[in-house]
Amino acid sequence: MNGLTPGFADAGLTPGFADPVLDGQATFRAVLEAMSRPGRVQRAGSALRPPAPLNQAAAAVLLTLADADTGFAHDAGVAAEAWLRFHCGMPLVPGAQAAFVLATGTPPALASLAQGSEEEPQAGATLVLQVNALTEGTGWRLIGPGIETEHRLHVDGAPAGFVAAWAVNRASFPLGVDVVLCVGDRLAALPRTTMIAEG
Amino acid sequence: MSTTLEGYNFAYLDEATKRMIRRALLKAVAIPGHQIPFGAREMPLPYGWGTGGIQVTAAILGPTDTLKVIDQGADDTTNAISIRRFFTRVAGVATTEHTAEATVVQTRHRIPERLLREDQIIVYQVPQPEPLSRLEPRRTETKRLHALADYGLMHVRLYEDIARFGHIAKAYDYPVMVNGRYLMSPSPIPAFDNPKMHRMAALQLFGAGREKRIYAIPPYTDVRSLDFEDHPFRPIRAPHACALCASTDTYLDEVITDDAGGRLFVCSDTDHCAERQATAQEAAE
Could you name the domain of life of the organism this protein comes from (chain A) (predicted)? Predict the structure, then answer.
């Protein structure tokens, strides 16, 4: 058995994108904009009904970017796994080797994920991190490429010690992990170049 | 309205290829100036005609985009017209010749004179993405030099120009440091355009088809042209006014008009020049 059949039945398997080409394009542009302007909140996946605990934005990001070429690790449970693997067909790999890591609960330590190498820093992982709320204009002060002076972003549900772990991630540039923060149908990104200051 | 070609996916490339390019683009934005290998596809035009830029454009383009394509600043050259027509046929997108109306600008060898905005993306066609290629032909070695941020070779090359000619004799493809980390080829834009890359409001994406590399500069990112304290970088421009719009602060092309040494200088950015002429005419009436 390929492991997909039980999940298919359990989850009732809701559809992916209604229009995989154009919805994928719109989601990609949202992620590209988020990655280019860290801390600005974009919308993606409003029409999706992914199985819990997967939220719409995280589902949209993975439908858009993950496929058979991208190793995947997650903590989202059987139903979400079946849904994602049915729609994207990505292989499951250990967290340290994954190109995409989905965290719906407490995420693995940033330093435990793929960092890339000095010659190929692009092999660093993308962490899709589900949080409770994203609010622009308050909270963290973000500085770095893509930001004219500073962007402010309040992240409710960021894991404990994230800012300190992020400073370490930032310091190892060009190596490191990039993060896409997702809640509901909204997302924001933290590329590895972004500096976070609190308060 | 538009007659989109039957039998092709939206924007020509298949979805798996777009995903691969999109993943490369996102990592390129996260690591400004770093070249990322990608599996460039065969396109229905030869290498050197902008296959890298076209693939990047195809991966980002959506039905609501308005595309502008320029070749050496001009909207009306064969290459620019062909690429615009290509995307009209395979994606049904609107096209424009006006910089202000475009959401995506694909360019060969120029940056428009008009300042680009936050809601625009500029895609560069790149023939040789490796700034060190003329100095170190081995890819394995240049990768190592980028990893170590060892750019002494390029400084020596610029110094040799100063020793020989008294100035840095590089008028186009003038190397830049991106975000203080990676040495990057700006593609063969004139050195005159280099300052426009510095802290540009628009996202800048670069695609090299034959060399199979993608790189990017996020908005508001430091882009510094390499120079020396005693030989600061100077953008070069022909010391003339445009023969059509009288502009003295734009990049000019030299046009030979006869066999007797006749010549004139005109703006390379045709849209900007036409706009200035129209404004001048309105003012005169």
Answer: Bacteria
